[in-house]
Amino acid sequence: MVSKLKGRLLHAAPKRKRVEILKKMGYSEPDQGHLARLDRVLNDRDWGLLDGANDAHYNDEEFFRSLCAVMEVDAKIVDTAIRLTIKAHQEMIAAFRPYLWVDTGFTRKNQPIFALAAMEQFRHLYFDAEFLRLPMHLQIEQARRSIRKHMTDTGGELQMWGAIQQYWFFHSIDKAILLDVNGDIIGEREGPVPSLSSCSLR
């Protein structure tokens, strides 16, 4: 039943006005922020449970529970969905290895998905287990050295993906430091890397 929950909510929600749903959830005067949060939760694979959002009414879990109650979803199914989502996230964190993601600003045109999937490995540069023992400033320094070596080895271009524009150094599962092709820090980023068919985000 949990596997069908996403489809059920996405199918049922459009039949009811979003403002109506939010009002039943306790928002007497829903604004654009509330509407955006509802859309995000409905379309997020993790139900918005990992967003860290909190308004005058609900935190992440409370919002999801209230939405499901309004949509008449069985409480046991909701409990299971929350438990499995949190468990999966914890397992991802436990298995995480810091890495560099190579950003070429790629936008898919007519390339086959299977070909992109096969080449995706060349956009990920993982560090060994000892890397985790280093303090953050030394991790960054090693990442910078790895970038300079990678630029030399590749000539600044990846087959199919194109010319390298920057690197994302993921030091945690959803937080990255952005570095240019010389290894200099140029910014920070939260969230996952773009999908196979998208381009880089500036």
Which descriptors apply to this entry?
202 residues; alpha+beta; 2 domains; five-stranded antiparallel sheet; two-stranded antiparallel ribbon; 7 strands; 44% helix; elongated; disordered C terminus
Describe the secondary structure blueprint for this structure:
Layout: H1 2-12, H2 18-24, H3 32-43, H4 60-70, H5 75-95, E1 99-103, H6 113-119, E2 124-126, H7 136-154, E3 157-158, E4 162-163, E5 166-172, E6 175-179, E7 185-190
Antiparallel strand pairs: 1-2, 1-5, 3-4, 5-6, 6-7
Q: How would you describe the overall organization of this protein?
A:
- The protein is an alpha+beta fold.
- The protein folds into 2 domains: 2-93, no CATH class; 97-190, no CATH class.
- 44% of the residues lie in helices and 15% in strands.
- It is built from 7 helices and 7 strands, in the order αααααβαβαβββββ.
- It has helices at 2-12, 18-24, 32-43, 60-70, 75-95, 113-119, 136-154, and strands at residues 99-103, 124-126, 157-158, 162-163, 166-172, 175-179, 185-190.
- The strands form 2 sheets. It has a 5-stranded antiparallel sheet, covered by helices on one side. A two-stranded antiparallel ribbon has the order 3-4.
- Strand 6 (175-179) and strand 7 (185-190) form a beta hairpin.
